Amino acid sequence: RVINLSVILDGPQQSVADAVRYAHDRGVVVVAAAGNGGGLDPTYPAAYPEVISVAAAQEDGTLYPWTQRGPWVDVAAPGCSPSTARGGGFTMFCGTSSASASVAGVVALALSVVPTASNVDVERAISETAAPLRGGGVASGHVDALALVDALRAAAPLVSQLAP
What is the pLDDT of residues 34-81, one digit of tens each? Predict the structure, then answer.
């Protein structure tokens, strides 16, 4: 029910746009990394309308200088996360690929709590519950996992009544 796309294409590609639309039309939440170029230009697949595009936020609640940003980017999430290192041990994994993986995990958590929620319900709730981001730079703000789950739970009776 969730796909994470940690990839940046050279530009829009019809086959990828079709695949994203196909998945979305079948109830999948599609999340994608916005890119690490530090600019305002849209990247793909993150800029497709069916995708939750994710920028990378720092611990102080601002965006990293190297993350893509702009009104086409939906939300931000932690841009650096601990990960396993090649050869053993741990390291920091930084980039919008790390941030989008975090958002995909939050979406999976939310869907496990409220399995009747549709992809559109999740996308709406992520935008509506995002916490303000210092300095802005994205359409909605910083992903708030607890607020997302609470919003979907509150809407769950309505969601189940509308389900086919």
Answer: 999 999 999 999 999 999 999 999 999 999 999 999 999 999 999 999
Q: Would the pTM count as exceeding 0.85?
A: yes
Count CB-CB contacts under 10 A for residue 131.
14
In this structure, the strands spanning 80-84 and 90-94 are: antiparallel
Give 98's contacts (C-beta < 8 A, 6+ positions apart). 56, 78, 79, 80, 81, 83
Give the three-class secondary structure for 114: coil
Identify the CA nearest to 42 among candidates 73, 14, 75.
73
Residue 92 and residue 1 in contact, taking contact as beta carbons nearer than 8 Å: no
Residue found by looking up tokens 């931000």 in the block = 76
Q: Which residues contact 128 (CB under 8 A, 6 or more apart)?
A: 140, 151
Element counts in the chain: helices (H) and strands (E): 4, 7
Concatenated DSSP letters for 34-48?
--SS-SSS--TTTTS
Given the structure tokens 């990247």, which residue do they identify?
43
SS3 state of residue 148: helix
Q: Check: CB of residue 75 under 8 Å from CB of residue 130.
A: yes
CA 31, CA 13: separation in Å to the nearest integer? 17
User: Shortest CA distance to 36 belongs to which of 2, 80, 91, 90?
Assistant: 80
